[in-house]
Amino acid sequence: MQKQFLESGIITGIHGLQGEVRINPWCDGPEFLSRFKRLFDKNGKEYKVTRARPHKNIVIVKFKGVDTPEDAQKMRDMVVYIDRADVRLPEGVYFVQDIVGLEATDVDDGRSYGTVTDVFQTGANDVYQISKDGKDYLIPKIPEVVEKISLEEGRIYICTKKIGGLFEDEN
User: Which of 38, 52, 68, 136 lies deepest, with the highest CB count within 10 Å?
Assistant: First the structure.
């Protein structure tokens, strides 16, 4: 089941004297997060964004009704969420939170390699951490290895024939 609200950053402090806050983004970056017209707290309370702009590696945000440094300071350490309905992802692109928890299955024989427990963004391609029986394996998300992702089935399908040594117990 997909979450409606996705963790996207944390308010780390205030900026200026007009009630702006500094958000450290946990998503695709400051440019991505600065496009949203509303953000949410962990309880689903909506905060309307009156302006937002990237600033180096953070986002400076002004929320409606937050007009003083004191108001902004009360929001410090608040995790902010986006509503998945506010995002249109291109085909074949997924939220990290939807990938974590999927079962990694061999595309040929159906064998389970474990569960995706983390996703690392390396620049060239994502890398999936798959865990099973206390061991962690790193799998590059490239077409030769990850052949299919099915959120409906709760699985990613992996082919290990083209790139050996991904799992130490492989034949």
Answer: 52
